[in-house]
Amino acid sequence: MALKKLNFWIGGEFRAAQSNATFVDHTPVDDSPYAEVARAAVEDVQLAAEAAHAAFASYRDTTPGQRETWLGKAADLLEQRKDAFADVLIDEIGSPLLKAHFEIKYAIAHLRTAAGIPRRITGQTLPSDVPGRFSMSVREPLGVFACITPFNVPLIKAMKQCTGPLATGNTVVLLASEEAPALAILVAELFRDAGFPAGSFNVLTGFGHEIGDDLVTHPRVKGVNFTGSTRVGRHLSALCGKHMKRALLELGGKNPLIILKDADLDAAVHAAVFGMFLFQGQACMASSRILVEAPIYDEFLSRYKAAAAGVGYGDLRSPKTMLGPIISQRQRDRIRHHIDDAVAHGATLETGGKWVGNRCLPTILTGVDSRMVCYQEETFGPVTAVYKVGSADAALALANDNCYGLSAAVFTQNLDEAMRISQGIHAGMVHVNAPTLHDEPHVPFGGVGDSGMGREGAQTDIDHCTEWKWITIQAPGASHGH
């Protein structure tokens, strides 16, 4: 069967790279070729940024009703096309069916939520000390947004990063992960068919390390939305600072799940399995540190090991499968290194550490300490460490002994303790009696520390994607005193 060929979407048309360069996208189940994809270079970035800038001149003046209609239509179309999207999520990035459906359902909800943004872009009237002067502030779109998305939830992140700018009158150049270009092209077709004008939404495919800097520093680009590693996030943050660009960075996590002695153990075990092993731990919100109070530690560990051993890893299209393949050889090597390093330095491998093809089976470590790479670093695979703690305060101290601060969770039946810990924990999001892995379209989603800066979500998109302008009107003949 011939490989599908994928081109950029620029200015309302599909285009090959100007050099005709391509790369091969592989399916992670067996690393077989999945698609031949246009590979962007600096001249392609230039073309996309200029197309988005040219479209901005008229797109900024589209009405709230128009943008609301396009976003709503995109949600309806995604619902109609969910099987095609699920196929790409499964075949291109190795999503189990459960996770693919989870992602599509979220994306539809996000589009519907974003459709409400255009009518909420409000300004203010302000009092003035100058007699006869009317003073007001209004919000204006910035211009072109560069949106750089990861492989793990490419549909969710395309919606989170791109709909805020589009809803507020900005235009977008999406640079998709090199692991998920086919999904980005499906999104381009979705927005095209929903009615978004040519040039308002553009897609580049290629390698971030080759063209990411060119896109972020392009003079036409005014805002940057990035999801990815902390290392790359720091680099892009420095570029944005140097070039005075607005940036929203959603980076890594090393998320603590605290289980106190009065917790509902059934619920806590379920949260630890779902929050760690959904999509084989390739999630920034994964529960990669589980801190269990001593009186229930042994029972929790025993139950958790049994539950982890029962996680399905069969056919990706089976609803019983939770665990799929790790995305790339580089990432597989990283996971192996984290496990081997921990064991070499004295950690105990309670379960897992084995591979079936490109799948790493659910892996639980104990005895992990600061000498080990996985103590501080994000593994981004199905590997977690369980720690015994002597008290709630000890759990809180250990939870905060980390440079990340994305998501956290605490299981307890003591509401006072839940509130105290949720307020004391250094994280952008805390869930009580629920997994660390949770998101909704309208909430301020994001982290602190090395987990990033800024917040995704409809509630915060208006601030992030618009600029205030102050306008005064002096009545003719009125006093101009100060």
Automatic annotation (TrEMBL):
It comes from the Bacteria. Coiled coil: none annotated. InterPro entries: Ald_DH/histidinol_DH (IPR016161), Ald_DH_C (IPR016163), Ald_DH_CS_CYS (IPR016160), Ald_DH_CS_GLU (IPR029510), Ald_DH_N (IPR016162), Aldehyde_DH_dom (IPR015590). Keywords: NAD, Oxidoreductase. Transmembrane segments: none annotated. The active site is at E250. The keyword Repeat does not apply. Pfam families: Aldedh (PF00171). The keyword Translocase does not apply. Residues 16-471 form the Aldehyde dehydrogenase domain. Belongs to the aldehyde dehydrogenase family. This is Aldehyde dehydrogenase. It comes from Rugosibacter aromaticivorans.
